Amino acid sequence: MGFILSCKKKDSNSANSDSIIEGQTSILVDESLMPIVEDQAIIFQTDYNAKLTLLPKSEKESLNDLTDKKSGIIVLSRDFNNEEITFFKNNRITPRSTPFAIDAITFIKNTKSNDTLIDLKEVINYLKGTKNSIKGLVFDNPNSSTVSYLCRLAKIESLPSEGVFSFKTNDDVIKYVSENDGMIGVVGINWLTQPKAAMQRYVNSVKILSVKTADNKYVYPSQENIGSRAYPLARVLYIINCQGYNGLGMGFASFIAGEIGQRIITQSGLAPIREPSRNIRIRNQIENKK
C-alpha cells in the first residue's frame, strides 16, 4: 500500500483560516457515513460561526485525498490501521482520533421476498466464491468501507468477479434492490433510518434482514443491538484530525462527541458512544386534564 501523507504542523506564526469554533474548513467523509455527518455539520454551523465543507467519497478515495492534503480532517468507519499509524509515527505526526458513534452494515432485500433472515457464514462463503442460496450481492462502491469491511471479514483481497455488483452510492443500492427481486443489498443503516425525501419510496420497498451470529442467534440491527455489539456487523465511527493545530477539526470532534452531538446520533437511529443525559421533570402535583 502506498500511503503518503504530509500533515505538517503549522508554524505558530502562520495565519490559520479556522479556530476551534469559527472559520472554515473541509472534511473528508466516507460517503457511507454522510447522513449522520451532514446532520452534525448543520447543527454545528448553526451554533458557531463556522463553515464546514463536506467532501464525500469512498473510503479509499478519502484516504487518498488525505495524503494529497486536500484536508487534514477525515471521518471513517474505522481507526487508522497499523501501517497508517506507523507512517504517522515515522513522520512525527500525531493524529487525534475521536470515536463518536456506532453504526451497522446491513443486508436488505425487496419486500416481495419472504426472507427476513440471512446467515453471515453464507455471505462470507459466497464472497470466497462458493455458490449457495444467495442470488447476488449489491455494494455501493468497490472502494467503499462496506466492501473493505466484508473483505477483511472473509479474508479476501477483493470481491469475486461473478455474482457481485457495485454501483456508486448507497442510494443506488437501495433503488436497485427495491426494483429487483432476490438481490441482497449491502448498505450503511443510516441510509435507511434517515432517507432523503426522494428516497423514501425506495426505502419503503426494501426490508432489513436479521443476521445469524456465530452462536446461532439471529440479530436485527436495532439501535440497542448495535450499541451493545450484539449485532455482528456493528462498527465504530471516528473523526480523525491531523490539522496540526487546534482548528475546526478539534472543535467539530468535541461537538459530535459531546452532549448535543450524542443526542443527534441517538435520534438518527445509530448508537451513541455514550448515552446523553436526560432531564427529568418532577412535579409536586398531578395535573388533571379535562
TrEMBL record:
Superkingdom: Bacteria
Domain (PBP) ranges: 23-258
One Pfam family matching this protein: PBP_like_2
Alphabetically ordered keywords of this record: Signal
InterPro entries: PBP_domain, Phosphate_ABC_transporter
Protein name stated in the entry: Substrate-binding domain-containing protein
